[in-house]
Fold this sequence. Notes:
The chain is mainly alpha-helical.
Amino acid sequence: MSTNGESSDQTVQKIIAEMEANVSVLSWIKAAEDNKEAQEHIRAIKAALSKAKKDLVKA
Length: 59
């Protein structure tokens, strides 16, 4: 996935940022539907992304 000397950390950061954007869009769509199960999944994804970001910072 790395291009032009991009470090793996930069690649991971870009992937996480893209996933966060996707979660934001899903949150907006599902909030309109008031779907409790979907909201639980979105919260779990957000928590996993937050942990991944913290782990990346520690690395």
